[in-house]
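user: can you give me the structure for this one chain? tokens are fine.
assistant: on it. calling the predictor now.
[tool input]
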Amino acid sequence: MRSHATSAAPKLRSIPRAGACASPAVLPLTIEIGGLPIRLNTADAEFRQLLAGRYSNFLASKSAPALEFEVESADSGPRAAEENLDFRASFDLRTRRGRLAFVPNPFAVDTLLRVVHSLLLAPAGGLLLHASGGIREGRGFLFSGVSGAGKTTMARVAPPDVRLLTDEISYVRRTAGGFRVFGTPFSGELGIQGENVSAPLAAIFLIEHGKENRMRLVPEPEAARRLMRNTLFFAREARLVDAVFSTVCELAGRVPVFRLEFRPEPRVWELIR
């Protein structure tokens, strides 16, 4: 599990408290991933336009936010350069409000969204997984692996009837009917957003390049260990760590996990069903 420090009120780096009143010039932008909307309030029209394009598949202007951030430009002077800071952020899961100060860079928002969603998902029985994914005939499939394992390749060689969810980071949530996978805007080498759609999760494939296309079912304990290594998480708080661990174990027990060796060719999708 990839873990970074946090607390009950998770904080990436502390910044001064926001003023009591929002500026009339604030331009809100709500980005909804996995059914969880996060609102960003910024007075920078150009930056808002850039974000609107980057997350165009996931904009939801009418949704009530699960978390709201005041966004402003950070100090880009010597201190920021010395500390190698792209952004500073703080947020409180109890008040559902936070602040983001950034040296203008859209990747700061990308990182923020990944951190926030991983923390919101943990107590709700969900997680972010290093995996590409797609929907075929109403069923969701994930292809998980370390960098270079072939996540983007599986997305690139997918046949036309596959709806691409992501080629980099997948979004999984427990629902009443089982686990469900959602599209994300978090892109890898393809550099494109996934579709804003979801489907029941039918199978997970632990991928690696091979000389032929072949697969085998992975025993549950091994599947849980492998999935844990590929889970994104940014907290050390015991209750959240326990929640993610329980979710991974449940996921490995309820969704079939296969080891998939494959050649970088469309024929590998003949095994995906």
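assistant: here you go. Confidence is low (pLDDT under 50) at residues 1-24, 76-84. The chain has two domains: 27-124, 126-271.
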